[in-house]
Automatic annotation (TrEMBL):
It is found in: Cell membrane. The keyword Nucleotide-binding does not apply. Keywords: Cell membrane, Hydrolase, Membrane, Protease, Transmembrane, Transmembrane helix. NCBIfam families: exo_archaeo. The chain crosses the membrane at residues 21-40, 89-110, 122-146, 158-175. It comes from Parasediminibacterium paludis. InterPro entries: Exo/Archaeosortase_dom. It is a multi-pass membrane protein. This is Exosortase family protein XrtF.
Length: 187
Protein backbone atom coordinates (compact mmCIF):
# COMPACT_ATOMS: atom_id res chain seq x y z
CA UNK A 1 0.00 0.00 0.00
CA UNK A 2 2.91 2.32 0.74
CA UNK A 3 4.22 1.93 -2.82
CA UNK A 4 0.85 2.89 -4.30
CA UNK A 5 0.68 6.00 -2.11
CA UNK A 6 4.24 6.93 -3.08
CA UNK A 7 3.36 6.57 -6.77
CA UNK A 8 0.21 8.66 -6.30
CA UNK A 9 2.18 11.35 -4.48
CA UNK A 10 4.81 11.38 -7.20
CA UNK A 11 2.10 11.59 -9.86
CA UNK A 12 0.48 14.61 -8.17
CA UNK A 13 3.87 16.31 -7.82
CA UNK A 14 4.48 15.91 -11.55
CA UNK A 15 3.58 19.07 -13.51
CA UNK A 16 0.25 18.94 -15.35
CA UNK A 17 1.96 19.39 -18.74
CA UNK A 18 4.14 16.34 -18.09
CA UNK A 19 1.15 14.28 -16.95
CA UNK A 20 -0.75 15.20 -20.13
CA UNK A 21 2.29 14.25 -22.19
CA UNK A 22 2.56 10.84 -20.49
CA UNK A 23 -1.18 10.08 -20.69
CA UNK A 24 -1.48 11.11 -24.36
CA UNK A 25 1.68 9.18 -25.26
CA UNK A 26 0.54 6.06 -23.45
CA UNK A 27 -2.95 6.19 -25.02
CA UNK A 28 -1.61 6.76 -28.53
CA UNK A 29 0.91 3.95 -28.15
CA UNK A 30 -1.81 1.63 -26.81
CA UNK A 31 -4.15 2.58 -29.69
CA UNK A 32 -1.37 1.95 -32.21
CA UNK A 33 -0.59 -1.46 -30.70
CA UNK A 34 -4.25 -2.51 -30.77
CA UNK A 35 -4.70 -1.45 -34.41
CA UNK A 36 -1.32 -2.79 -35.51
CA UNK A 37 -1.49 -6.18 -33.80
CA UNK A 38 -5.21 -6.60 -34.43
CA UNK A 39 -5.35 -5.65 -38.10
CA UNK A 40 -2.37 -4.02 -39.82
CA UNK A 41 0.37 -6.50 -38.94
CA UNK A 42 -1.55 -9.69 -39.85
CA UNK A 43 -2.41 -8.17 -43.25
CA UNK A 44 1.03 -6.56 -43.72
CA UNK A 45 -0.68 -3.25 -44.49
CA UNK A 46 2.47 -1.17 -43.88
CA UNK A 47 5.02 -3.87 -43.13
CA UNK A 48 5.07 -5.43 -46.59
CA UNK A 49 5.65 -2.14 -48.38
CA UNK A 50 8.25 -0.87 -45.92
CA UNK A 51 10.13 -4.19 -45.80
CA UNK A 52 10.26 -4.47 -49.59
CA UNK A 53 11.24 -0.82 -50.10
CA UNK A 54 13.95 -1.15 -47.44
CA UNK A 55 15.28 -4.31 -49.09
CA UNK A 56 15.34 -2.75 -52.57
CA UNK A 57 17.22 0.26 -51.19
CA UNK A 58 19.72 -2.00 -49.40
CA UNK A 59 20.36 -3.92 -52.61
CA UNK A 60 20.96 -0.67 -54.52
CA UNK A 61 23.41 0.56 -51.89
CA UNK A 62 25.25 -2.77 -51.77
CA UNK A 63 25.61 -2.72 -55.56
CA UNK A 64 27.56 0.54 -55.21
CA UNK A 65 30.13 -1.03 -52.88
CA UNK A 66 30.52 -4.48 -54.39
CA UNK A 67 31.74 -4.29 -57.98
CA UNK A 68 32.03 -8.05 -58.40
CA UNK A 69 28.96 -10.25 -58.23
CA UNK A 70 25.35 -9.19 -58.28
CA UNK A 71 22.72 -8.43 -55.68
CA UNK A 72 19.04 -9.15 -56.01
CA UNK A 73 16.19 -9.53 -53.57
CA UNK A 74 13.30 -11.87 -53.10
CA UNK A 75 10.08 -10.75 -51.41
CA UNK A 76 8.50 -13.48 -49.28
CA UNK A 77 5.36 -13.69 -47.16
CA UNK A 78 6.72 -12.02 -43.98
CA UNK A 79 10.18 -10.88 -44.97
CA UNK A 80 12.50 -10.28 -47.89
CA UNK A 81 15.85 -11.86 -48.66
CA UNK A 82 18.95 -10.19 -50.03
CA UNK A 83 20.75 -12.47 -52.48
CA UNK A 84 24.39 -12.16 -53.51
CA UNK A 85 25.30 -14.15 -56.62
CA UNK A 86 22.07 -16.10 -56.18
CA UNK A 87 22.81 -17.09 -52.58
CA UNK A 88 20.80 -15.77 -49.67
CA UNK A 89 22.95 -13.40 -47.63
CA UNK A 90 20.39 -12.37 -45.04
CA UNK A 91 16.76 -11.49 -44.61
CA UNK A 92 14.90 -8.37 -43.60
CA UNK A 93 11.96 -9.40 -41.47
CA UNK A 94 8.96 -7.17 -40.94
CA UNK A 95 10.13 -6.75 -37.34
CA UNK A 96 13.38 -5.18 -38.62
CA UNK A 97 11.91 -2.68 -41.07
CA UNK A 98 11.93 0.16 -38.47
CA UNK A 99 8.15 0.71 -38.56
CA UNK A 100 7.92 0.50 -34.76
CA UNK A 101 10.78 3.01 -34.48
CA UNK A 102 8.96 5.39 -36.88
CA UNK A 103 5.77 5.10 -34.84
CA UNK A 104 7.45 5.57 -31.45
CA UNK A 105 9.29 8.60 -32.84
CA UNK A 106 6.10 10.11 -34.31
CA UNK A 107 4.06 9.55 -31.14
CA UNK A 108 6.65 11.38 -29.06
CA UNK A 109 6.61 14.29 -31.52
CA UNK A 110 2.79 14.36 -31.69
CA UNK A 111 2.25 14.52 -27.93
CA UNK A 112 5.08 16.95 -27.18
CA UNK A 113 3.83 20.55 -27.05
CA UNK A 114 4.90 22.39 -30.18
CA UNK A 115 3.39 23.90 -33.31
CA UNK A 116 1.68 21.61 -35.80
CA UNK A 117 3.94 22.73 -38.65
CA UNK A 118 7.09 21.95 -36.69
CA UNK A 119 5.66 18.56 -35.70
CA UNK A 120 4.85 17.66 -39.31
CA UNK A 121 8.28 18.76 -40.55
CA UNK A 122 10.05 16.86 -37.80
CA UNK A 123 8.02 13.68 -38.31
CA UNK A 124 8.73 13.69 -42.06
CA UNK A 125 12.43 14.52 -41.74
CA UNK A 126 12.79 12.16 -38.76
CA UNK A 127 11.13 9.28 -40.62
CA UNK A 128 13.45 9.79 -43.59
CA UNK A 129 16.47 9.96 -41.27
CA UNK A 130 15.39 6.82 -39.39
CA UNK A 131 14.83 5.00 -42.69
CA UNK A 132 18.31 5.93 -43.90
CA UNK A 133 19.83 4.92 -40.56
CA UNK A 134 18.08 1.55 -40.80
CA UNK A 135 19.31 1.05 -44.37
CA UNK A 136 22.86 1.82 -43.24
CA UNK A 137 22.44 -0.65 -40.36
CA UNK A 138 21.27 -3.36 -42.75
CA UNK A 139 24.03 -2.65 -45.29
CA UNK A 140 26.61 -3.02 -42.53
CA UNK A 141 24.95 -6.24 -41.40
CA UNK A 142 24.96 -7.57 -44.97
CA UNK A 143 28.67 -6.77 -45.20
CA UNK A 144 29.26 -8.71 -41.99
CA UNK A 145 27.25 -11.67 -43.32
CA UNK A 146 29.12 -11.65 -46.63
CA UNK A 147 32.47 -11.61 -44.84
CA UNK A 148 31.27 -14.43 -42.53
CA UNK A 149 32.02 -12.37 -39.45
CA UNK A 150 31.49 -14.02 -36.09
CA UNK A 151 30.20 -10.74 -34.63
CA UNK A 152 26.96 -10.62 -36.64
CA UNK A 153 24.60 -11.52 -33.78
CA UNK A 154 26.16 -9.09 -31.31
CA UNK A 155 26.22 -6.31 -33.90
CA UNK A 156 22.63 -6.98 -34.97
CA UNK A 157 20.96 -7.40 -31.61
CA UNK A 158 22.98 -5.01 -29.45
CA UNK A 159 25.38 -2.61 -31.13
CA UNK A 160 23.36 -1.52 -34.16
CA UNK A 161 20.07 -1.45 -32.23
CA UNK A 162 21.69 0.76 -29.59
CA UNK A 163 23.00 3.10 -32.27
CA UNK A 164 19.57 3.40 -33.92
CA UNK A 165 17.79 4.13 -30.62
CA UNK A 166 20.51 6.60 -29.60
CA UNK A 167 19.96 8.34 -32.94
CA UNK A 168 16.21 8.57 -32.27
CA UNK A 169 16.92 9.95 -28.81
CA UNK A 170 19.23 12.52 -30.41
CA UNK A 171 16.42 13.56 -32.80
CA UNK A 172 14.01 13.90 -29.86
CA UNK A 173 16.51 16.07 -28.01
CA UNK A 174 16.87 18.33 -31.04
CA UNK A 175 13.08 18.59 -31.30
CA UNK A 176 12.60 19.48 -27.64
CA UNK A 177 15.40 22.05 -27.57
CA UNK A 178 13.80 24.44 -30.04
CA UNK A 179 10.33 25.32 -28.98
CA UNK A 180 8.05 27.26 -31.25
CA UNK A 181 6.24 30.38 -30.09
CA UNK A 182 2.86 28.63 -30.21
CA UNK A 183 3.98 25.51 -28.34
CA UNK A 184 1.88 26.17 -25.24
CA UNK A 185 -1.26 26.40 -27.35
CA UNK A 186 -0.53 23.03 -28.98
CA UNK A 187 -0.92 20.99 -25.81
Amino acid sequence: MIIVKDIQALWHQTPVVARKFLIKGFLLLLLWQIINIGYLEPHRIFDGTITNFTTVTIVKVLEQFYTTGSFTYQALSHDARVLYNGQSVFRISDACNALSVFVDFAIFIIVYPNSVGRKINFIVLGAISIFLMNVLRCVLLATLYISHSTSVNVMHHYVFSTIVYAFVLFLWIIFTRKKSVTADAAI
